[in-house]
């Protein structure tokens, strides 16, 4: 399974490569590749994966280890960056039985800390920012 | 959402591409063949990830092109069951809510999987969630272009391989002017999608993002 970030990086690199070589991307054969690349990049750039990096992902996975989540659950948390308990309950199966309320809060906090969020969204809610966030 | 699929195929490189590096020529041919196409029971292919093994290239009599058996990995869009995805509402119809993700369009949320109770507003052609609270019923409209979070419950692959010519139907007697094209009913048939996802939003947290972002 691939994370959204890996696909995003692959497509951005491929786009750079094709931009450099330049000559044949407009030929009819390549049109499908261009279309799918454009649409997928458009979709992924609006998701949290566009602001991630390999280090962030490694840090996220190491922090997630004690919670004993399955690979699919960690992947969904990484791809969606949930901010509420409801979202976590959707992505983690049987979350009421496996995680206590404080663990869910802790999970939300870790996700918010490690994975970079949408700068517009964060600027729009300055009143909710905790003291540590002021750089 | 995305998986890496290992595939094997024989790639034909035409002679006018012999001056290129073999890997580049093969990558281009594979992308030309598979990008943006649905492979039956696999998913929507996006782009080549890497080439794992190249076997020897052969030239066959009568064809000047080289044929190479290639083992490669391809990035495929194939969400797993129960995965949560975010898309945009394309339009609503009696069959349910049609959702699109930009690169993939055929996602349907049937009426039974909408937040209940839901009704279809014929005038505006939208599905509406009649949300009951103590204060009264709120009508939450599922408008076009709204972002929607849903869970994948099912996937349907249709085999689109070309079938033989359709058998003679009762209303095509031996009319001299008529070609062997299929009868008129076929041209009115809907185009079936090779890969359809069925989703649900019948859980807390699912549905329009604006419903849950307080």
TrEMBL record, chain A:
Q: Does the keyword Cell inner membrane apply?
A: no
Q: Which InterPro entries match?
A: HRDC-like_sf, RNA_pol_Rpb4/RPC9_core, Rpb4/RPC9, Rpb4/RPC9_sf, RPC9
Q: Domain RNA polymerase Rpb4/RPC9 core spans what residues?
A: 1-118
Q: Report the superkingdom from the record.
A: Eukaryota
Drop me one GO molecular function for this one: nucleotide binding
Keywords on record: Cell membrane, DNA-directed RNA polymerase, Membrane, Nucleus, Transcription
Check the record and name the Pfam families matching this protein: RNA_pol_Rpb4
How is this protein annotated for GO cellular component?
Answer: plasma membrane; RNA polymerase III complex
Quote the function comment for this protein: DNA-dependent RNA polymerase catalyzes the transcription of DNA into RNA using the four ribonucleoside triphosphates as substrates. Specific peripheric component of RNA polymerase III (Pol III) which synthesizes small non-coding RNAs including 5S rRNA, snRNAs, tRNAs and miRNAs from at least 500 distinct genomic loci. With POLR3H/RPC8 forms a mobile stalk that protrudes from Pol III core and functions primarily in transcription initiation. Pol III plays a key role in sensing and limiting infection by intracellular bacteria and DNA viruses.
Quaternary organization? Component of the RNA polymerase III complex consisting of 17 subunits: a ten-subunit horseshoe-shaped catalytic core composed of POLR3A/RPC1, POLR3B/RPC2, POLR1C/RPAC1, POLR1D/RPAC2, POLR3K/RPC10, POLR2E/RPABC1, POLR2F/RPABC2, POLR2H/RPABC3, POLR2K/RPABC4 and POLR2L/RPABC5; a mobile stalk composed of two subunits POLR3H/RPC8 and CRCP/RPC9, protruding from the core and functioning primarily in transcription initiation; and additional subunits homologous to general transcription factors of the RNA polymerase II machinery, POLR3C/RPC3-POLR3F/RPC6-POLR3G/RPC7 heterotrimer required for transcription initiation and POLR3D/RPC4-POLR3E/RPC5 heterodimer involved in both transcription initiation and termination.
Q: What protein does this entry describe?
A: DNA-directed RNA polymerase III subunit RPC9
Give the taxonomic lineage as stored in the record.
Eukaryota, Metazoa, Chordata, Craniata, Vertebrata
Which gene name belongs to this protein?
Answer: CRCP
UniProtKB/TrEMBL annotation, chain B:
Reply yes or no: does the keyword Membrane apply: no
A Pfam family cross-referenced in the UniProt record is RNA_pol_Rbc25
Task: Please list the GO terms describing molecular function.
Answer: DNA binding; DNA-directed RNA polymerase activity
Query: Compositional bias (Low complexity) at which positions?
Result: 162-178
Q: Where is the RNA polymerase III subunit Rpc25 domain?
A: 83-212
Q: Where is the RNA polymerase Rpb7-like N-terminal domain?
A: 9-64
| GO CC aspect terms | RNA polymerase III complex
Q: Which GO terms describe its biological process?
A: defense response to virus; innate immune response; transcription initiation at RNA polymerase III promoter
Q: Where in the cell is it found?
A: Nucleus
Q: Which UniProt keywords apply?
A: Antiviral defense, DNA-directed RNA polymerase, Immunity, Innate immunity, Nucleus, Transcription
Under the heading InterPro entries, the entry gives: NA-bd_OB-fold, RNA_pol_III_Rbc25, RNA_pol_Rpb7-like_N_sf, RNAP_E/RPC8, Rpb7-like, Rpb7-like_N
Q: Where is this region: Disordered?
A: 161-192
Query: Family per UniProt?
Result: Belongs to the eukaryotic RPB7/RPC8 RNA polymerase subunit family.
Q: What does this protein do?
A: DNA-dependent RNA polymerase catalyzes the transcription of DNA into RNA using the four ribonucleoside triphosphates as substrates. Specific peripheric component of RNA polymerase III (Pol III) which synthesizes small non-coding RNAs including 5S rRNA, snRNAs, tRNAs and miRNAs from at least 500 distinct genomic loci. With CRCP/RPC9 forms a mobile stalk that protrudes from Pol III core and functions primarily in transcription initiation. Pol III plays a key role in sensing and limiting infection by intracellular bacteria and DNA viruses. DNA-dependent RNA polymerase which catalyzes the transcription of DNA into RNA using the four ribonucleoside triphosphates as substrates.
Q: How does it assemble?
A: Component of the RNA polymerase III complex consisting of 17 subunits: a ten-subunit horseshoe-shaped catalytic core composed of POLR3A/RPC1, POLR3B/RPC2, POLR1C/RPAC1, POLR1D/RPAC2, POLR3K/RPC10, POLR2E/RPABC1, POLR2F/RPABC2, POLR2H/RPABC3, POLR2K/RPABC4 and POLR2L/RPABC5; a mobile stalk composed of two subunits POLR3H/RPC8 and CRCP/RPC9, protruding from the core and functioning primarily in transcription initiation; and additional subunits homologous to general transcription factors of the RNA polymerase II machinery, POLR3C/RPC3-POLR3F/RPC6-POLR3G/RPC7 heterotrimer required for transcription initiation and POLR3D/RPC4-POLR3E/RPC5 heterodimer involved in both transcription initiation and termination.
Entry-linked NCBIfam families: rpoE
Q: What is this protein called?
A: DNA-directed RNA polymerase subunit
**Species name:** Myripristis murdjan
């Amino acid at each position: 399974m691939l994370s959204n970030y890996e696909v995003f990086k692959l497509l951005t690199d491929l786009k750079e490569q094709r931009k450099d070589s330049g000559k044949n991307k407009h030929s009819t054969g390549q049109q499908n590749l261009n279309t799918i690349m454009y649409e997928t990049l458009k979709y992924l750039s609006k998701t949290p994966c566009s602001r991630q990096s390999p280090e962030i992902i490694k840090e996220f996975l190491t922090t997630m280890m004690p919670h004993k989540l399955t690979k699919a659950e960690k992947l969904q948390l990484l791809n969606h960056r949930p901010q509420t308990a409801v979202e976590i309950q959707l992505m983690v199966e049987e979350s009421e039985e496996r995680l206590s309320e404080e663990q869910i809060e802790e999970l939300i906090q870790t996700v918010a800390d490690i994975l970079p969020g949408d700068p517009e969204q964060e600027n729009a809610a300055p009143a909710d920012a905790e003291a540590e966030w002021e750089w | 959402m995305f998986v890496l699929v290992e595939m094997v195929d024989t790639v034909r490189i035409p002679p006018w591409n012999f001056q290129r590096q073999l890997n580049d020529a093969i990558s281009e041919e594979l992308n030309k063949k598979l990008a943006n196409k649905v492979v039956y029971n696999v998913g929507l292919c996006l782009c080549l990830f890497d080439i794992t093994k190249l076997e020897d290239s052969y030239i066959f009599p009568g064809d000047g092109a080289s044929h190479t058996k290639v083992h490669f990995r391809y990035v495929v869009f194939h969400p797993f069951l129960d995965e949560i995805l975010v898309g945009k509402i394309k339009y609503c119809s009696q069959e349910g809510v049609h959702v699109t993700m930009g690169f993939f369009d055929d996602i349907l949320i049937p009426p039974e999987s909408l937040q209940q109770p839901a009704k279809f507003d014929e005038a505006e052609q939208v599905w509406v969630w009649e949300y009951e609270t103590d204060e009264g019923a709120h009508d939450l409209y599922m408008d076009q272009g709204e972002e929607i979070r849903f869970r994948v419950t099912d996937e349907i692959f249709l085999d689109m391989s070309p079938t033989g010519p359709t058998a003679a139907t009762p209303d095509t007697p031996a009319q001299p002017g008529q070609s062997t094209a299929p009868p008129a009913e076929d041209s009115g048939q809907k185009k079936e999608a090779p890969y359809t996802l069925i989703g649900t939003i019948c859980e807390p947290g699912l549905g329009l993002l604006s419903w849950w972002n307080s």
